[in-house]
Design brief:
By secondary structure, this protein is an alpha/beta fold. Helices cover 41% and strands 13% of the residues. The strands form 3 sheets. A 7-stranded mixed β-sheet has the order 1-9-8-5-4-2-3, sandwiched between helices. A 4-stranded antiparallel β-sheet has the order 7-6-12-11, with no helix packed on it. A hairpin with a 2-residue loop joins strand 11 and strand 12. Helix 13 packs across helix 16. The structure holds pyridoxal-5'-phosphate. Residues 53-55, 79-80, 82-83, 125, 168, 170-171, 192, 194, 205 line the site of pyridoxal-5'-phosphate (PLP).
């Protein structure tokens, strides 16, 4: 069976983990701080805080911005549930908008329609690794009309003077927008290093800060670091220093730090990210693209346009003119040929938790259409050329058997 997305762990990463295990310090410490610096250099943010997951990163930022009951946060209907769950936890209302039909990202015109005086944040999601052009969203939110619309409820919101753009870039580390890396555009960008992501630390995430002029990103980093560790004035590593056992609890904070064991995996993975991770992913996706371009039934994903390039995270093939049931049959036929595939994503209004909150998939026809015809194919570093060939044959056989071309 060809698996869907196994992790690629180099011997060097294993050695780095062993080094940490033997070092006498295994939770947040020097390796996490070094990993943060390396991510900052890589993505061009002002600074970066590593955390236990992207989910935690999104939620802590919503809380730091003071979002809660009575507020609204705009997200795509077409995303993973983490994006929405974090908003629910804060007590704010989730506002979902429909997708684009060319890529799978949230539609800018729909965002504009969804903004109200209660809107406090927008969470664009770079689905499959293809960036949302958040410069357009920030431009829209910075217009005098939109700024007048914005009702600040605390000093941070007042200082920003507009809706916060918090990118869920769980998929898009290394993706490019206007010839710069994702992480250097939105107010704040959150990456995921979960096991199936391009770069993995098993579980983990990073918050890349890029708050505009007037904000001290270093001070924000320190504040979020403090809230991510129970609100303690010193982290556990600092407390181990000679005579430094005393600390204060400044806030009733949360617990969401990254460990040095995770950072060990991340440091080595990041070192090779541009050398043999992204190029291999691009090669695999290009092979899929070339193969499927010969078939009229195939709707190919966008990789690269003038202003943006994906991180080659997920290959999102769509089959033209099929129903959800037909897509499911095709998936079964692919699995029958010993190839694992997946679907990214089932839109949130189709899940019980969000149906119960009043969402109805009929209000998101494009998200549904994208989902109902989508099949994600395996893309990972250890996928061989022969396996890529096998995937292509399995997909072609399954589709052609099912749609009787
Ligand atoms: C779009 C999106 N956002 C957020 C997350 C959450 O990431 P994490 O597992 O690091 O919390 C994921 C994870 O799959 C995701 O796909």
């Amino acid at each position: 069976m060809i698996p869907f997305s196994p992790p690629h762990i180099k011997q060097e990463a294993i050695d780095e983990v062993v080094d940490t295990l033997k070092s006498g310090w295994i939770t947040t410490g020097p390796k996490t701080k070094l990993f943060e610096q390396k991510i900052t250099e890589y993505c061009g943010a002002k600074n970066t805080l590593c955390v236990g997951s992207a989910t935690f990163g999104l939620e802590i930022i919503l809380r730091w911005f003071g979002i809660g009951q009575g507020d609204e946060v705009i997200i795509p209907a077409y995303t993973y549930t983490a994006t929405a769950n974090t908003v629910v936890h804060t007590g704010a209302k989730v506002i979902m908008v429909d997708a684009n039909s060319d890529d799978f990202n949230m539609n800018l015109a729909e965002i504009e329609k969804a903004i109200t005086p209660k809107t406090k944040a927008i969470i664009p999601v770079d689905i499959a690794g293809l960036p949302v052009d958040t410069t357009k969203i920030i431009k829209l939110l910075s217009s005098s009309k939109m700024k007048q619309f914005f009702k600040a409820r605390n000093t941070i919101q007042e200082k920003l003077g507009r809706v916060l753009v918090l990118s869920d870039s769980a998929h898009s580390l290394g993706a490019q927008l206007h010839k710069k890396k994702v992480g250097s555009f939105s107010d704040i960008t959150v990456f995921s290093f979960h096991a199936v992501k391009n770069l993995t630390t098993a579980e983990g995430g990073a918050i890349a800060f890029n708050m505009p002029e007037g904000f001290d990103n270093e001070a924000i980093y320190k504040e979020i670091n403090m809230i991510s560790l129970h609100g303690q004035s010193k982290d556990a590593f600092a407390k181990t220093k000679k005579g430094a056992w005393q600390y204060d609890v400044l806030q009733a904070g949360y617990k969401g730090n990254m460990t040095d064991i995770q950072a060990s995996l991340g440091l080595v993975a990041l070192k090779y990210y541009e050398i043999d991770n992204l190029p291999v992913r691009k090669k695999i996706m290009t092979a899929y693209q070339q193969a499927f371009s010969q078939y009229d039934w195939a709707e190919l994903p966008i990789f690269k346009e003038e202003n943006r390039e994906t991180s080659y995270h997920i290959y999102t093939l769509r089959i033209k003119n099929i129903t959800e049931t037909e897509r499911n049959t095709i998936i079964q036929k692919i699995f029958d040929q010993e190839v694992s595939v997946n679907v990214h994503f089932k839109p949130l209004p189709m899940f019980s938790a969000y149906k119960e909150r009043g969402f109805d998939i009929k209000d998101y026809p494009i998200a549904y259409d994208n989902y109902s015809r989508e099949i994600s194919l395996p893309v990972y570093q250890d996928l061989t050329e022969e396996q890529v060939e096998k995937v292509i044959i399995a997909v072609v056989n399954a589709v052609e058997e099912s749609i009787h071309v």
